Amino acid sequence: MSDGEAFAPTEVTVVDHHANNQGNEKRREPSLEIPLEREYTNLQDARMAASIPLNRRHTLNLEDYFAGPRDMSKHSKWPLFLQMHGSILPKMIVPLVCMAAWSTIITLLYEKVAHIGVNSILLTVLGFVVSTGLSFRGSTAYERYAEGRRFFASLVTSSQALGRIFWIHAKTLPDVDMRKQMLYKISAMNLVVAYAIALKHSLRFEPYTAYQDIEHLVGHLDTFARSATTTMPLNGGVGKKNFFKSIGDYLGLSFAASNPRKLLKKAEKPTGNLPLELLNHLAVTIDQMIARGQLPVPMQQTTAYNNLAALNDAYTGCLRVLTTPLPIAYGILFQQITWLYVILLPFQMVAVLNWITIPATTVASYIILGLLFIGQEIENPFGHDVNDLPLDSYCEQIALDMDIIASHSCFEPDDFFFSSENVPLYPVSGASADIWLRRSEAKLTEAIRTKPNKIFEWRRWRGEKIEDEESAKSD
C-alpha cells in the first residue's frame, strides 16, 4: 500500500441510531457507522487489515520510495552520500537538466559565435548575497522544523501524564461495576490518542474521521467532522493522479502540486475543528472524574488540567508554525537571486573553463539550488515529504504508551518493594528485601550507611587491577 493510501478514507454508510426512539423525541442527524468487521477475499488482504493502523507499510513502489515522511525505524547500509531516499536530488532533476542545457548553449555561443564571457568579479559580489540569503533561508526553515518537533514532544509528555492520571491516579468507585470503570478509563485514554491523530490530520488538511488510524477512536463521538464524513465522497474527495501529475509531483514541479486544502474547499458540511472538540470531551471527562471523587487530591486535579492545557498549547503552537510561513516577499526574492546567480554562472566560467563549463555549472547548480530546495521542503514540517516530521511514528508512540500504562496493574507498592526478587542494596549485598526483613534494624542501617564507602573501595580496587593488567601486557 502506498503512503498516500495508508490512511485513505474507508467506505462509510449512514444509519440512524435513534430510529427506535419514541416518536415524540426529536430525530437526530444520521451518524457514521464504522465498518470495523469486514470480509476479505484472500489471506493477504486479511493480514494487511490486521496490522496496526498507525504503522506505515512500505513497499517497493516508486511512490513509497520518494514519498514520506521517512520511516525512522528503517536502517540503510548504503553510505549516506549514496542514499536516494530522503535526498533532494529527485526534485532537482529538471532544474539541473535545464542548467546543463543552458550552459551548453552559452558554451556553444562562446566557442562558435562570439566571446560572451564576463568578468568573474560578478561571482564574488553575487556570491556573498546568495550565500547570505541561503543561510537565512535554511536557518529559518530548520527553526520551524525544530519548533514543530518540540511541540510534538510536549504532546507526548502531556499524553503520558494524562494517561497515568486516568489509569493509575483515578480511584475506583466501590459501588460501580469494575468493568464499566475500566472501560471508562480506557475510553478516556483513547481520547488522548485520538487527539494526537486528529492533530496530525488537521495539520495535513484532512478534515474527516473515516481514516484508518482514527475511525475506531472517534466514530462514536458527536462531532462536526463525523457529520461531514457522512457526505464525503467514497474516494475522500481526492481523485487518482494521472501519470504525468505523479511524475511531476516526484520531480517537485510546482504546476503538478495539488492544493493541500482541497478537501476543506470541497466539503459539503462544516468540518469543524476535531482536535478542539476532542479537548472538550477530555475536559468533560476530567470534570466528571473530579465530581465523582476519583481524583480527590488537589494536585492530581491541577496536573490533569495543566496537561489538558498543554495539549491545547501544542495544537496552537503547531498551527502557528503551519500558518506563519516565511513572508512571500522573502521567498520570491531568494528564488530570484539564486536563479539569477546560477544563470550567470556560465558567462563567468566559460572564458576559463571552456567546455568544462557545462559539468562545472551543473555541479555548482546542484550545490546552490539544493540548499534552496531543502529550505523549501522542511519549511512546513507536517506534510508528506520525505524529510518532514514522522507524525505517524509520534502518534504510534503515544498509542503504545497508553497501552503500556493500561497494562499496569494498580496493585500496592508493597507487592513489588518487598518481593523476593527485589535486591535493594545491590551490589553491596545480594540479599532480597524479604531476607532483610528477617535481619535486625541495626544491621540494615549499617549496610545502608557503609554502602558509599564500599562502592568507592570496590571501584578503586577494580581500577588498580585494570592498571596492573595493562602494565603486565606492556611488559
Automatic annotation (TrEMBL):
It is a multi-pass membrane protein. Keywords: Cell membrane, Ion transport, Membrane, Transmembrane, Transmembrane helix, Transport. Residues 1-32 are annotated as: Disordered. GO terms for molecular function: chloride channel activity. Residues 14-32 have a biased composition (Basic and acidic residues). The chain crosses the membrane at residues 92-110, 116-139, 151-170, 182-199, 328-347, 353-374. It is found in: Cell membrane. Its main location: membrane. GO terms for cellular component: plasma membrane. It comes from the Eukaryota. InterPro entries: YneE/VCCN1/2-like. This is Uncharacterized protein. It comes from Trichoderma cornu-damae. The lineage of its organism: Eukaryota, Fungi, Dikarya, Ascomycota, Pezizomycotina.
